[in-house]
Amino acid sequence: MNKNIPTFKAKKISETQVQFTCSKCKRKLHHSIEEGHRVGHCDCWPDGYYIEIEDDSPTDRIRHLEDALKEIRDIAHVSEGAEFYAMVADKALKGAK
Question: Would 7 disulfide with which of 17, 50, 57, 92, CB 3.0-4.6 Å?
Fold first, then answer.
């Protein structure tokens, strides 16, 4: 692997697609399920990037839910009523552990 080209851990979101967030522009990028070097879907990486697919173990799943909860809380700062949904998600997440 070229050390100047980043590697992103992508999560499987369907039988045919993975998703990850670009560390520079913060866009959610989607690719087909294959690992390896890929052409970039944003302008941040002109030489592309590598994709590795994360395992979807229970621990990974909880981490993904925690990330989603953080995203909900970020939205709550600018959207009225979203804090309620963050509390509901937080309660569900605590029950999953």
Answer: 50
